[in-house]
Amino acid sequence: MGPHPAVAAIRLAVRRVLHDLLTEHDLRAPAEGPPALATPLTGSPAATAPAPRTDTTPRDRTSAPMSPVGTGARPGARRAPGASLLDDDPLAPLVLVACSGGADSMALASALAFEAPKLGIRAGAVTVDHGLQPGSDQRAAEVAARLTGLGLGPVDAVGVTVGRGGGPEAAARDARYAALDAAAERHGATAVLLGHTRDDQAETVLLGLARGSGIRSLSGMAAVSGTGGRYRRPFLHLDRQTARKACLVQHLPVWDDPHNADPAYTRSRLRHEGLPALEKALGKGVVEALARTAQLSRDDADALDTWAAQAESAVRDPAGLLECAKLYALPPAVRRRVLRRAAIDAGSPAGSLFARHIEEIDRLITGWRGQGAINLPGRVVAQRQGGRLVIRQS
After folding, report:
1. Closest residue by Cα to residue 116 from 79, 141, 144, 145
2. Which of 51, 160, 297, 303 could form a disulfide with 175 if both were Cys (CB 3.0 to 4.6 A apart)?
3. Contacts (Cβ under 8 Å, ≥6 apart) of 389
């Protein structure tokens, strides 16, 4: 008798991502010299096995900005189901899972612990203590112990300081990703798995819609993101209940963060009030439809970004200045992408460059009435001069 359908679903999702990682490495290896991935186990469905890494110099761990409050697997910890001696091979590839102790990330951790050894991949974990609640350090240590008990290693419990920029949710997210980046660099991890589900994706799309953001915001979270494709989200096509059910049938203890039910947070209100109200008014299937919208929007946004990148060189004169007449001839969605790229290249921070800024620059092209320069974030100025658009530092 096979595993419970929920357990089978999460394992399949993780297995696909691990196969992707092995395949991507095989495609890169010839051009990049000695690979970092180890040879898969005999009988593995992965592609042709790469040669082992030849550089065995220990990695420098002194440059990481975060300091772990607890690291490493306990001696004698039980091996994950299906594990082999390859787990102890320091040259085998390492994939980390970011785990808060909640149902989504615990389900992900259990699936990684089960699937990774069968493909010759080491599986570790990172839990981040944001320090926002009393006893959070102890809770992080408990989560780390559970992860070690699954057979994961190395396991880090990392404490961070959450700033104030961009609001509490954004500040916590920034601190968390900085800690995950540092852990990945510290351990030389190939990838970090995140437990975002289809429900999280639907919430992200609605938040973007409420802000009046463009199609890129409506595309939600990418299955692959981060520098070099570091972050992977295997569960974007699975609902939250599947992950919770998988934990229940495997008797995995989970921790429900009280912040997720705190109405002071926008996402919490959307989760517990907004989405249920939409489903009551529109019927079931809203979450699935929003997640589908995210994927369609991402495909469109990617295509438009590619078009804009190709068009940019064609709208510049020999001196590299943007020609207003040629910009005017572009479709608005493409033209505004070209303008945004130009502003960022001039030094305007992407996170501070909003739609209203791009609309003001666009009026220099489509609604020229002799208006003056436009001030942009990062001390960047955009102005029209002799039929050219000049975007530069002030």
Report:
1. 79
2. 160
3. 321, 322, 323, 324, 327, 339, 342, 361, 364, 365, 382, 383
The highest-confidence range among 46-50, 208-212, 262-266, 368-372, by mean pLDDT, is 368-372
Rounded to whole angstroms, what are the CA distances from 68 to 62, 65, 154, 179, 186?
12, 10, 12, 9, 11
Residue 239 predicted with pLDDT over 70: yes
Predicted TM-score (pTM) above 0.70 = yes
Picking from 231, 225, 198, the residue whose alpha carbon sits closest to that of residue 97 is: 231
Give the residue from 344, 394, 333, 336 showing the smallest Cα distance to 365: 336
Mean pLDDT of 241-262: 90
Mean of per-residue pLDDT scores for the chain: 84
C-alpha closest to that of 122 among 137, 112, 131, 130: 112
Q: How far is CA 84 from CA 41, 125, 231, in A?
A: 9, 18, 26
pLDDT value at residue 74 = 35
In angstroms, rounded to a whole number, what is the distance separating the alpha carbons of residues 40 and 44? 6
Q: What angle do CA 153, 157, 159 make, to 5 degrees?
A: 155
Q: Which residue do the tokens 């990682």 mark?
A: 21
Amino acid (one-letter) located at 162: V
CA distance linking residue 94 with residue 186, whole number of Å? 11
Least confident range of 18-22, 85-89, 118-122, 277-281:
85-89
Q: Could you report the per-residue pLDDT of 346-375, keeping only the tens digit for each?
A: 999 987 888 889 999 999 999 999 989 999
**Cα 225 from Cα 206, distance rounded (Å):** 20
pLDDT of 135 > 90? The answer is: no
| Burial of 95 (C-beta count, 10 Å sphere; 0-12/13-18/19+) | buried
Tokens found for residue 142: 């408990």
**Edge-to-edge order in the sheet of strand 388-393:** 322-323, 388-393, 380-385, 374-376
Helix (H, G, I), strand (E, B) or coil at 11: helix
For residues 82 and 76, the answer to whether their CB atoms sit within 8 Å is: no
Helix ranges restricted to H, 87-231: 103-115, 136-149, 168-187, 198-210, 215-218
Asked if residue 120 has pLDDT above 70, the reply is: yes
